Amino acid sequence: MTPVLVRQHLPTAGPVPRTDLGARARDWSEIQERMLVPLYEAVYERLEVGPGTRLLGLGCGSGLALLMAASRGAALTGAEPCSPERLALARERLLPPAGEAHPGEARAPGDVRLTGRSPENAAGAETPGYNLVTAFEPIGAVAGDAEALVGLLTAAVPLSERGAPVVLVGWGPPERCATWDVLRAVAGPDARLRPALRDDLEEVAERAGLRPDGSGRVACPFGYAGVDSAVKGLLSTGLFDAAVAATDREQVGKELTEALHPYRRRDGTVWMPNVFRYLIARTP
Predict the structure, then answer these.
(1) Less CB within 10 Å around the terminal CB: N or C of the chain?
(2) Series of mean pLDDT values for 10-residue runs along the chain (284 residues)
């Protein structure tokens, strides 16, 4: 089994307004995080994640992708330095007291380490030599997100085995991502949005000293039970923080409701088709 690197939750754009960060993390965990499940599954299947996998999850969020890897028998290290609230939820999912796993969620088997600091802090003195590093946070929506990913990769590569595959993830072309139209309509000028470019992932790989070795595209529609659920889920990504800071959460919620109108179905659900791209590269 050879290693990999990917990235986990959607990027935060603009200043973070006053808000209930615990509630927002819960909305992320309960509503939004699952939208990338087809991507997690495609990557894990392609890389044959299993009992021999030693996984480092960068920006592990509230731990859903890690839990899916754990169900395949992987040993896990998750780092979430940006959101203590999401990390707390990951601990609930992955490290519950015996007999207290959440309904419908199996207790993660094997070795699990979580940290709110750098990956080295979770690994301890004996770095395991990761053969899968994930960063499931797609780039290609916010100016500067590629630079942030390069920094993460630079820190993580020395902890990985030589020749480890690295999976980088990006938003697909705007014309194939319905969510992009909603972002553009509501996020506001201070959000620093920018459309994904064809060679974003290859450029990041090159800057991080990685060698591209394959790619793929995965359909990840954003589907919600209703408009209220969609608004909560989208706000939990942080992509609308600049708009909330400029006005308020209620006003942005109204604008989101309007922007989501073309994606409402007759039964009241909301469905936005999206495509995400991943690149497999290898460490030196």
Answers:
(1) C
(2) 43 52 95 97 96 91 95 92 92 74 46 81 65 89 84 88 90 94 87 84 93 95 98 94 90 96 97 96 90
Across the strands, what pairs with 39?
A: none
281 vs 5: CA distance, rounded Å: 8
How would you classify the pairing of strands 270-272 and 222-224? antiparallel
Question: Which has the closest alpha carbon to 29: 72, 60, 6, 69?
Answer: 60
Q: Convert the pLDDT of each residue in 124-181 to its tens digit.
A: 555 568 999 888 989 888 888 888 888 888 888 889 999 898 889 999 999 999 999 9
> If you compute the radius of gyration of the chain from its CA atoms, what whole number of angstroms results?
18
Residue 151 buriedness (CB in 10 A; 0-12 / 13-18 / 19+) = exposed
pLDDT the model gives residue 156: 87
pLDDT tens per residue, range 92-105: 999 866 544 444 44
Decide: helix, strand or coil at residue 13.
coil
Is the distance from CB of 26 to CB of 79 less than 8 angstroms? no
Please state, in angstroms and as integers, the Cα–Cα distance from residue 159 to each residue in 2, 69, 82, 125, 266, following that order. Answer: 14, 19, 20, 11, 50
Is residue 193 within 8 Å of 183, Cβ to Cβ?
Answer: yes
The mean predicted confidence, pLDDT, of the chain is 86
Query: Is 21-282 CATH 3.40.50.150?
Result: yes
Domain layout of the chain by residue ranges? 21-282
Q: Which residue in the block uniquely carries the two structure tokens 């509230």?
A: 62
At 89 the three-state DSSP class reads helix
